[in-house]
Amino acid sequence: MIPDRAEGPDLIRPYALTGGRTRPSRSDLTLTTSVVAVAEVVEDDPEAREIHALCGRPVTVAEVASRSGLPLGVVRVLLADLVDRGNVLAHTPDRERDRPDEATLRAVLARIKEL
Amino acid sequence: MDGPGVFGQAPDTLKIVVAGGFGAGKTTLVSALSEVEALHTEEEMTVAGTGVDDLKGVEAKTTTTVALDFGRITLDPTTVVYLFGTPGQRRFSHMWAELVEGALGAVVLADTRRLTDCFDVIDFFEARRVPFVVAVNCFDGQRSHRAEDVRVALDVADPVPVLLCDARDRASVKEVVVELVELVLRLEMSGA
């Protein structure tokens, strides 16, 4: 784990971790994009390794950010690098593009009422 | 977007945006329904200055950290609902644009002490045609306000449900989400 990043003042500026890049190399990583680790990371970059480790099972970009304690923008840049290098696979849900149909909505409604 | 780096077995995710002013109870509402303790992340963003501390002749911009709280509800192995809490003031509208992309709909969480905090985000949802409900958080558990009075004060149209809720209470929050999904269903069936 990256120790105590959420605690106390940061000693380094967040985008130092990305070599100053604030925009990810790909724009398809939304908050609810699922990511999962595949190939091992060979780079000796602790943040990339940390993020890769957090993707051990399919998890959303938002959850990776939350669990790493790194700002979302930084996570997006580092995750995009991992996807580009083939270390992580990404899947953006269909709902980002299509509205749910009536049958889906009825199913969702029934499930929520059961909660 | 298909192509390299895409896999197919991820669950379908539905996104609900919860917007409200600071202290309106967004995190509480998200936590009430989430199967995990509300998760938290931060986004650094550049925002226009608020005007209070502007220097004359200098275009005031400042970087701020925006907290994003969210929760997860797994409805079944193939369907997961995410609730994302976001501040309701216009200077956070960069974030709203991404959050509403593909969102099922939104909950505007209103605090009757500061109803004006909701105006910007209501304007935004109306302009983007994002289905939303207004939930009035009754902190003290007393329903001292009438939903209809809040509707008038916020000037929201009749089809928009306005209901009282207790953000701490799971059943009450469930009612709010059910109201939202029923609204989306009505809109879908009417072809809107």
What does this entry look like structurally?
The complex is a heterodimer of chains A (115) and B (192). Chain A is built from four helices and three strands. By secondary structure, chain A is mainly α. Chain A has a single domain, classed as Arc Repressor Mutant, subunit A. In chain A, strands 2-1-3 form a three-stranded antiparallel beta sheet. In chain A, helix 1 packs across helix 3. Chain A is elongated. In chain A, 42% of the residues are buried. Mean pLDDT of chain A is 83; it is low at 3-8. By secondary structure, chain B is of the alpha/beta class. Chain B has a single domain (12-50, 60-189), classed as 3-Layer(aba) Sandwich (Rossmann fold), CATH 3.40.50. Chain B contains five helices and seven strands. A seven-stranded mixed beta sheet of chain B has the order 2-3-4-1-5-6-7, sandwiched between helices. At the A-B interface, helix 2, helix 3, strand 3 and helix 4 of A face strand 1, strand 2, strand 3, strand 4 and helix 5 of B.
Summarize the structure in short:
The complex is a heterodimer of chains A (115) and B (192). Helix content of chain A is 37%, strand content 9%.
Task: Give the averaged pLDDT of chain A, no decimals.
Answer: 83
Strand content of chain A: 5-15%
Topology, number of strands of chain A:
3
Largest interface, Cβ cutoff 8 Å = A-B, 45 and 47 residues
Produce the secondary structure layout.
The complex is a heterodimer of chains A (115) and B (192).
Chain A: E1 34-37, H1 46-54, E2 59-60, H2 61-68, H3 72-84, E3 88-91, H4 102-114
Antiparallel strand pairs in A: 1-2, 1-3
Helix pairs in contact in A: 1-3, 2-3
Chain B: E1 12-20, H1 26-33, E2 39-48, E3 61-76, E4 79-87, H2 93-100, E5 105-110, H3 119-128, E6 132-137, H4 147-154, E7 162-165, H5 170-189
Parallel strand pairs in B: 1-4, 1-5, 5-6, 6-7
Antiparallel strand pairs in B: 2-3, 3-4
